[in-house]
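Re: beginner question about structure tokens

> Can someone show what the tokenized structure looks like for a real chain? I only ever see the sequence side.

Sure, here's an example I had lying around. Input first:
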Amino acid sequence: MFGLLAIYSLGILMHKTPIYLQVKKALNYYLENGQFIFTVALSGGVDSVVLLHIMHGLKQQYPQLDLSAIYVNHGLSDNAHHWQQFCQARCEQLSIDFKAANVIIEPKSRTSIEAQAREARYQALDEHSPSDSVILLGQHLNDQVETFLLRLKRGSGLKGLGAMQQTRVLESGRECYRPLLGVKRSDIEAFAQQFNISHITDESNSNERFDRNFLRQQIVPKLAERFTGFEQCTARSIELLQQQQALLDEYTQQDLAQCINQHQALNIQNMAHYSAIRIANLLRAWLALFTHTMPSQKQLTQIMSQAIHAKADAQMVIELSDGQIRRHQGYLYFVQPSPLAVNIERVTSRELVLNDGQILQCLQGIGIRAPKPDEQVSVRFNCNSARIKPLKKPGSNTLKHWFKDAKVAPWLRAHIPLIFYNDELVQVVGYFISDNHKDDTGFIWEYKS
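And the corresponding structure tokens:
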């Protein structure tokens, strides 16, 4: 049990230990830039508990430091509630603000329970930590080595073999930081023993059915015993891989800037002269703007073949897990699923909320005349056969013809609001007004910004 003697010992001795000095050095960037709000992701294991105590010691040197802790309860172990109570008691003893967050893991096909729990944990940490805090994670050098070996086993490329970065940026923009990433597990355990810091042990950590546990129990110890400094050498290789990936990212961003337009579409002609591996790299970087799921090698080859070598007017639709890649007017677009537009058959207001959340408003000005008493106003979608004579266009034709003339992408057409008076098309919002209904002192339908 962590008692008064340990608290006293920590205050006197901890500031001189290598781990404390290493964590302090790792956090110098934040401290020197006035960032003093931190949240420890506390699991109750030795690594996060030691990190909690080191941060408590750091607070003695920096009284302005605002420290809190959060425990994420996945409910995957019968001991989860006990661990939560343990973490809460440690924080109360150190006068550190504590919060627990419960998450529910819904099993999904093709995704391991460990991966789902990890993502749920990050989401909970993001949602429940103080908004201005940096989240501190307890992963250490041995975790890094295990991650590298797991990625090696899966046949990962440069980025995957770079394992864990010291900083992870969540989707919200919040930073997670790993100050113990250069510290061996054995040193962390020795620190806990030196200062009499108790912790819990997750019973699942001994289950070698999990690949990480097998590496931890059977493989890494033998490699470390056989090869002196194995963990540090692996960490050095990982750092070099990360540097090489960072360099590649710089060149990739230059390629992306040369080929992408304001609509985040890729200019096919601009990238056509690149080598095949450079195009593949560019496509992955472009897709990463929209999705975390990268295409298979077969899909990537298909995208490159259809994008570069197909005829200019060829239609291209490649289905990915969470969207489509489409080709239009010499550009590649990533099209994400959207709900089918719903007609509004009787318009009685000058402001309408569409089922996709966008708002249409009717403003006075140059546009179409007001409806006559016997004309019912409606908003419809996907009426390609409807005819209209657009203002300053020759003759009447179908909406399909005018969309093609205006180079409107096919997948956008069904979501463009069409204003009807009875069954007569009078305005295509954002594109055309009917020449037969024009009125300089009339009305115009527009999206509300």
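Each token stands for a local structural state, so reading them left to right follows the chain. The first strand starts at residue 37 and ends at 41.
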